[in-house]
Write a structure and sequence with these properties.
Elements lengths: L13 H11 L3 E3 L6 H22 L3 H20 L2 E3 L5 H20 L11 H17 L1
Antiparallel strand pairs: 1-2
Helix pairs in contact: 1-3, 2-3
């Protein structure tokens, strides 16, 4: 194991993954209220590239990296509309829906052999996550 690497527990569900990813992000991103949407997006992109993405990459977890990318996409969308984005105020359900959409359209077809495995997810980690989410749904 190396610095920054994250070993997810076998029963890591969405909340576990999201809390790890949120730990990499500041509570709030504030851009210049007078700046246009493009300038705000550029500042968010720079922050992401310089401080958040390296942590996601160091985690060595493809699930965390993909979830982080989903959250980044939401933050970029919001930064087009507002000058201040409070990361913790983003609805977890929205992040979960987008993340699960990515899994349905990309990871699951690869896991079932319908598409060629492209390495965008780590197989065992993905299977453990899907199992944990299914167990969580069964408990409800």
């Amino acid at each position: 194991m190396f610095v920054g690497q994250v070993t997810l527990p076998e029963d890591a569900d969405f909340e576990c993954l999201l809390s790890q990813v949120l730990a990499w992000w500041p509570d709030e991103l504030a851009g210049d209220a007078d700046a246009d949407a493009g300038a705000r997006q550029s500042s968010v992109a720079r922050l992401y590239e310089n401080s958040i993405a390296p942590r996601a990459i160091q985690s060595a977890s493809m699930l965390l990296l993909q979830l982080d990318w989903v959250l980044y996409g939401i933050v970029i969308e919001l930064s087009r509309k507002v000058s201040r984005v409070r990361i913790k105020d983003i609805r977890a359900q929205l992040v979960k829906e987008r993340f699960h959409s990515l899994l349905r359209h990309t990871a699951l077809p690869q896991l079932r052999g319908e598409k060629e495995w492209d390495g965008s997810f780590e197989r065992d980690e993905l299977v453990n996550y899907l199992r944990a989410e299914a167990m969580g749904m069964a408990r409800q």
